[in-house]
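The authors assume throughout that readers already know how a fold can be written as discrete tokens. Each protein is reduced to its one-letter sequence and a matching series of backbone shape codes. I therefore recommend that a typical entry be quoted early in the introduction. For illustration, here is how one protein appears when written out as sequence plus structure tokens:
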Amino acid sequence: TQGRELWVLQITDNPGVEEDEPEFAYLSTIHGDETIGTVLCLNFIETLLTGYGSDAGITSLIDETDIWILPLLNPDGYEMGIRWNANNADLNRSFPEWPIHFSGTLATEPMIKTVGLQPEVARVIDWSVDHRFVLMANYHSGALLVNYPYDEVPEIASGQEAPTPDDDLMRSLATTYASLNPPMAASRIYPGGIVNGSRWFRISGGMQDWHYRYAGAIDFTLEVSTIKNPSTGSLAGLWENNRNGMRAYLDRVHR
């Protein structure tokens, strides 16, 4: 809205070349005041780039995966230190809703219209549809858990489970990340550090449900700090708590 760009980095052995490889994405800071994920994404970028050629596992991942990282989805909100974008819209409540705005999928109906959507949302939709991601996750702060779809099923009340047809896979993937984050795994509120989105609290217009329902991508919400804007001194510890989970979750795109 204020003219800032959304910057995304592609990491692969042949950038710009369409290969027969699964596409993966990390996104962060859809809420402008939840900033820790931006730092985690930048650290992860550095880990991948410096590890290529020296770490066999990282080298193999980059050679066999099309990895995309968008560290800052809401740059206007970030600059202003607010949750919303410059139009005072909560971007994680602004994606098309099922079954109001669409009833099928990218494979069964024409491309969803982005006219009238928030500009950041429209760009992410275009980008996601163009790349057909297999596995994704988006970073938040304010809680400590992995939240997996569905966030909303109209006939299911907030606070109740709303499982997808892939619920067993969702739980397994969520556990992959949470089990490697010690304080998340030790949660006394959410067993194993994971929770179904609707069971946590229901939201409409969320990004992860849109990605799963329309674009066919599994997308999770990673809440990685109970403090929205942690102190500089806590960043190293937060990175240590998340770095192994980031790598393991990316690995799962090949399974």
User: Anything to note?
Assistant: The first strand starts at residue 9 and ends at 11. The mean pLDDT is 97. The CA atoms of residues 158 and 202 lie 5 Å apart. Residues 235-251 form the longest helix (17 residues).
